[in-house]
């Protein structure tokens, strides 16, 4: 029963995000990226996990490009591998892969530790746990780490359920940045 509610919530959240991504996306992206940049500066994050955005996600590309130019920051993104992903340094060119997601080429340059992980969400449940696209890649990745970075969820608009839809393995945000 919980999975039916989770699936229904995921579908309705994706529809809301698609709608908003067509209309007020530019303005919302600017606000969120500005707040993410401020957050990274305040927390003095050195090794940062970001993501290469899909259409309905917050467009963090300007932040990716700005951070990669800084000498005191290292920027990493997911590289899909099996049922999860590994993190690779953000480099151009990007190649379109499974699920239409763009990725840099595979690399062996990994940080010892990620300070801040910025993670896109489809929605969150009543206790702040992530509802994603249903593949569980982020959940598996963070479950396999032997430490917990500061986790920041991003979303163009807040899609929050008033019910607990998550499973015990779903990741939870330390912070949520949205408009």
TrEMBL record:
Residue ranges of the TM segments: none
Matches recorded under Pfam families: 5-FTHF_cyc-lig
Coiled coil spans: none
Record bears the keyword Methyltransferase: no
Top-level taxon in the UniProt lineage: Bacteria
Key words of the record: ATP-binding, Ligase, Magnesium, Metal-binding, Nucleotide-binding
Gene Ontology terms describing biological process: folic acid-containing compound biosynthetic process; tetrahydrofolate interconversion
Enzyme Commission number: 6.3.3.2
Broad class of enzyme this protein falls into: ligase
Reactions it catalyzes: (6S)-5-formyl-5,6,7,8-tetrahydrofolate + ATP = (6R)-5,10-methenyltetrahydrofolate + ADP + phosphate
Cofactor entry: Mg(2+)
SUPFAM superfamilies on file: NagB/RpiA/CoA transferase-like
GO-annotated molecular function: 5-formyltetrahydrofolate cyclo-ligase activity; ATP binding; metal ion binding
Family according to the record: Belongs to the 5-formyltetrahydrofolate cyclo-ligase family.
Name of this chain's protein: 5-formyltetrahydrofolate cyclo-ligase
Gene source species: Malaciobacter pacificus
């Amino acid at each position: 029963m919980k999975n039916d509610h989770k699936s229904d919530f995921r579908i309705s959240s994706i529809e809301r995000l698609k709608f908003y991504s067509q209309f007020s996306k530019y303005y919302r992206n600017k606000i969120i990226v500005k707040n993410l940049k401020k957050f990274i500066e305040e927390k003095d994050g050195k090794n940062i996990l970001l993501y290469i955005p899909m259409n309905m996600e917050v467009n963090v590309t300007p932040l990716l490009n700005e951070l990669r130019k800084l000498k005191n920051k290292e920027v990493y993104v997911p590289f899909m591998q099996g049922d999860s992903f590994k993190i690779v340094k953000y480099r151009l060119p990007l190649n379109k892969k499974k699920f239409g997601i763009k990725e840099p080429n595979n690399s062996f340059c990994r940080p010892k530790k990620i300070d801040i992980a910025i993670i896109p969400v489809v929605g969150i449940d009543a206790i702040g746990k992530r509802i994603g696209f249903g593949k569980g890649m982020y959940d598996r990745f963070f479950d396999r780490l032997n430490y917990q970075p500061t986790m920041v969820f991003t979303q163009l608009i807040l899609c929050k359920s008033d019910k607990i839809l998550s499973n015990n393995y779903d990741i939870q945000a330390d912070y949520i940045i949205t408009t």
